[in-house]
From TrEMBL:
Residues 1-19 form the signal peptide. The keyword Transmembrane does not apply. Keywords: Heme, Iron, Metal-binding, Signal. This is Cytochrome c domain-containing protein. GO terms for molecular function: electron transfer activity; heme binding; metal ion binding. PANTHER family: ALDOSE SUGAR DEHYDROGENASE YLII, HEDGEHOG-INTERACTING PROTEIN. It comes from the Bacteria. SUPFAM superfamilies: Cytochrome c, Soluble quinoprotein glucose dehydrogenase. Residues 19-98 form the Cytochrome c domain. It comes from Catenovulum maritimum. The keyword Cytoplasm does not apply.
Amino acid sequence: MKYLSLILISLGWSQISFAAPPSGEQVYRQYCAGCHGAQLQGGLGANLVDDTWLHGDSEGAIIKTIKNGVLDKGMPAFSAGLAPEQIKLVAQFIKSQNDTPSSGKLAEQNKSVTSEHYQFDLKLLTVFDSLTWAITFINDQEYLATERDTGNLYYANINGTYRTIKGTPQVWNNDQGGMLDIALDVNFAENQTIYLAYAKENVNDNWQQPKGMTAILKARIEGDKLVDKQEIFSVDDAFALPSGRHFGSRIVVDDKYLYFSIGERGVRPDAQDLTKPNGKIHRIHLDGSIPSDNPFDRANAYKSIWTYGNRNPQGLARHPSTGEIWSTEHGPKGGDEINLISKGLNYGWPVITYGLNYDGTSMTDKTHMPGMEQPIRYYVPSIATGGIDFYHGEKWSKWQNNMLVTGMGAQELRRVKIVNKQVVEEELLVKDFGRVRDVAVSPSGDIYIMITRDHKGHMYKLEQRN
Ligand code: HEC
């Protein structure tokens, strides 16, 4: 006993309560930060330090919100997952964070990183006015960027200038829907052709509520506008859904095929239903026609399906040397995955998953089933994976063919080295600097990331220090 109290004294007062229940801050980090952000700055969940309170700012009102949730807005109820004492502590923690001055809450604009192989700076190039979803490089200097809620498409330069391309399709700006991914045709330099993935509303006067689905548009950029527009994928009204969630929609193009993802749109069982387009990765020809060797050429099947059982793949990229298609799947809490995507396979959602419900209870006890693929890597806790790219180039040669993985909720950029379908090395490069939504390697072998902070897109270049 004497010995124990000596240890406690030497650790200092702040440690004396170590046998007590976790602090409000610990509860926050474990259950809330994934949606409300490490600095309480918001993300999937509301900003909790901006003096704007939809449900009241008293301790009692906050406790009530945490207990009951705001279920139709995506705030889970914690009355079953947390003890009343924990709820009280986390509410007090939120209150205390609002009493500290707001300066210092925001991350600084540039950041220095020391990684295993390189020292580099994150250099801010441009701040876009709204949430930027995807970036893709045209040449060493120029890139295209999409803005989700406004539906804007930008033709941008790394010198910080950009202009808006007119004639973009009307997007369905519903929660996670809007203008999403952008990809270039392999012959873009000659034909200026691009492919856009976006949330499209199926307009139908008989419906009480709007419904929609992910769609793919092919078009050419001519000067400042889109021309020769051709919708190469969209769904009939029967498949449109009212949910504003899980549009997936990353695109990979080669000289013959276009692969793209659609999340399950919040309807979990649909991911296993081969008659439905959601919860799948699709493969079509560049004119939208269905390749004759697609895997599900049977009556009633949705013919463009390439793989199924995919929850919400928000990362899709082709390996530079093997040509394989890889995806990151935005899972439930604790169920993000990296998958190698191969023809006709079932990736298991929602039957098998490592995921948890948002209140921390287990979703299913099944992580394996015959006929269902295991992820190459899964993340517990979740990092909320976004876009991916493989490094290919001279400048960061020690990272050759490594996958760069973004994390939105966890505010991360990771480098993942995969050999023979196994992760052999993984390094956290950037942490707590905003939601990293997309990453792109330019033709010159430079690396760029798009970070969301304060609902604005921040474009950064990774710049090596000598
Ligand atoms: C799955 C994402 C998610 C998680 C996890 C989550 N929240 Fe929320 N939370 C939300 C969303 C979305 C809202 C906005 C609700 C609305 O628009 O009415 C919200 C709203 C709130 C509000 C009300 C803010 C206001 O303006 O009145 C509080 C307080 C809150 N959350 C606390 C918490 C706490 C504490 C935890 C952890 C125990 C937590 N949340 C976990 C998504 C989440």
